[in-house]
Fold each of these.
Amino acid sequence: MWIDTHCHLDAAEFDADRDAVASAAQAAGVSRIVIPAVARENFSTVRALAHGTEGAVYALGIHPLYTPHARDDDLDVLRHEIEASLDDPCFVGIGEIGLDYFVPGLDEARQQRFYDAQLRLAREFGLPAICHVRKSQDQVLKGLRRNGVTSGIAHAFNGSFQQARAFIDQGMHLGFGGNLTFERALQIRRLAQQLPLEAIVMETDAPDIPPAWLYRERNTPDQVPRIGTVLAGLRGLSPEELALGTTANAAVALPRLALSSA
């Protein structure tokens, strides 16, 4: 059994064949798919999709790339949606939130304000945070420390070994996906090989971050087992051992996964 801890199954790229994509993931052994929200406008979409898709769950949050068009009262809406979702077994946490220092032109102060506000919600409600950390690992980590958030996932992690250790010490798990399948991605491959297995969860970020064999094509959640096989080979494990370990790790990172499987 595999878990895709980060998949934007609601994305427009899946409009033509979403059900088939989800079914293919189940057939490939991906029993759970975590669908994070990115903006107020898709809170209800990811919730409905999780309820209508076998094995799917959802998180609620405002992505840093969506902060330019987010309104201040979106945070009030998010609070209301969290409160309304606490009894929902398909709801697993706050995400996708974080900071992005890669895309030019984003207001860093505005990103930070939305990030901190959402971290405070995560702490208040005792929920894990699914964090976007592109070129922003240190500042994302500072936010976690400052706001007392000690569980969740650093999605698509691509920092240094020292930064990885700091996230792990904070209680976070690190998400690895298609990037590690590229032989030239030396840093990510070293991290995936050398970090404690207990710190690693699998993800696709589908439809983005496709593995090497789908370069510049649409990524899909059914790719998790093949990506996992590459990672298992790097670590000298069988795919079955890696699937067992990373699935257990996902349950630690996102404890409410147990509710949706009960």
Amino acid sequence: MTLRRPYHLSLVAVCAALALSGCGGSDAGSGEEADDGPAFTLYSGRDEELVRPLIDQYAEEAGVEIEVRYGDSAEMAAQLLEEGDGTPADVFYSQEVGAVGALAKADLLGSLPQEVVDRADERFRPAEGTDWVGVTGRSRVIVYNPDLVETPPTGVLDLTDPAYRGQVAWVPGNAGFQAFMTGFRVSQGEDAAAAWLEEMQANDATVYEGNSEVLEAVEAGDQPIGLINHYYWARTAPEVGGVEEMASELVFPAGDDPGGLVNATAVGVTPQGADNAEAQAFVEYLLSEEGQQYFVEETYEYPVVDGVADPEGVPALDELEGPQLDLSDLDSLQETQALLTEAGLLS
């Protein structure tokens, strides 16, 4: 699906020397029992700027002390794998499903209440079990500048065409891109994924540090095409006066094209977190109407529960036609990173 005017529209292998301080960020709370209630420890693979307001609001409303450690989702998952049963974490909130899936595969997650998991749309929860649950949906998209691109691509499989030589920006170090490549491997096969990477490199794709930088370059007319998640575009539109003021437009790849992957942020609890009522209550809050509305309004991600409207400026979630995948199959992130490293895209 191509969205046109006026509807314009980031597991490394566990390191033997991985240190706790290497993955942490800022904290909210001491991690000990607070005067006004019990505490729990949250490992967040989500950006602090995006989710700390919600976490702080919940802590105040619920009267609990939450120690939060921020970092890259893959790094935090690697830390949890190293810490094993000795982890201080009660909750792991990941930027994508693959990281929580890897922990579930290693039997390092406890169970969530079935009724909480069932709040999420079926596509955003495990096919079996209650090890994790999706919190928000995010679609991969192609962003392009119509002043620079006469015929926009319909999907990522088009991008190896010589017509797009030197025009495409990508972010191989980003968790969203790596989840997309994991979906590519799962749906199209290892050989097809490796061949696409090779052909993209031969077509002079440009490496960027982050999705925001890609969008900025396309908006400024410095880059014709980029691969990002939808919400970077959607949350920028209001800042410039609305979708009609955006210089770039989006393509939502349809059908079996792996570029249309609809992934999810996801949350799980450790075995000790499963026995912590406050940790479980926090997960339930993320799937409440209040929690879901926060993400729609502040991050422009898709809600995963019924009764909450989709974000403005992008197609409705039920209109997206990306590859139909069991998100649990995205747990082979380590293999994806090995593939990217072999291709010279990761060090």
